[in-house]
Amino acid sequence: MTESLAYISPVSFIEHLLSVNGSVPAKVSELFIITGSSGSGKTTWCQQLCVTACARGVTVCGFISPAVYSEGHKVAIDLLDLVSGESRRLAVSPRVDSSHDNTRELNRPGLNWQFDESVINWGNTRLAALPAADLFIFDELGPLEFTYGSGLMAAFPVLAARKYAISCVVIRPALLQSALFRWPWGQVVACVPGLSLAEHPD
């Protein structure tokens, strides 16, 4: 099994990967599995990674799934296309009434969210037509994909093809062993709750 890397900020992560001339090495094909407990900042890490990469001239593609909060409670999850900037409502909490009839079609036992099948289809279509880029970010592959073989399955062949110099995929700890079995070349990066994303810990 691949050993976990020490916690590293998005800024340090990008700077570590850039070559001496400030560009991503053309022949590199590395996979980083971003993991951490719920609330540890995995999505925020990916968001800051995207911003940092773009600021340094690194081209980015993929998806991030930011949470939507209401009165301090997480009530929905969006799916944000990093290429077009388009965002759609991927899932809602079962406690929240939804006007999207498609959410009922992908309910599964043990899942805490009701997923919108039309948004999943949109995401899979976009994944199948990703442009060339230096960095691929995908947040996240979870039980819907690993356990039920549903959801954003088009991310699996993208990662298996190793077509991007750098790929980062978010995986929760309970699925980490399954991810490493599928991608044994992956390197694990742990997000630690309470640590600043701007600096290394002491």
How would you characterize this protein structure?
This protein is α/β, with parallel strands linked by helices and 202 residues long. It has a single domain (4-19, 28-190), classed as Rossmann fold. Helices cover 26% and strands 23% of the residues. The protein has helices at residues 10-17, 42-55, 117-128, 143-146, 155-161, 176-182, and strands at residues 4-5, 30-35, 60-64, 67-70, 73-81, 87-92, 114-115, 135-138, 166-170, 187-190. Strands 1, 2, 3, 4, 5, 6, 7, 8, 9 and 10 form a 10-stranded mixed β-sheet that branches. Helix 1 (10-17) crosses helix 2 (42-55). 33% of the residues are buried. Residues 195-202 have low confidence and may be disordered.
Layout: helices, strands, pairs:
Layout: E1 4-5, H1 10-17, E2 30-35, H2 42-55, E3 60-64, E4 67-70, E5 73-81, E6 87-92, E7 114-115, H3 117-128, E8 135-138, H4 143-146, H5 155-161, E9 166-170, H6 176-182, E10 187-190
Parallel strand pairs: 1-10, 2-9, 2-10, 3-8, 8-9
Antiparallel strand pairs: 3-5, 4-5, 5-6, 6-7
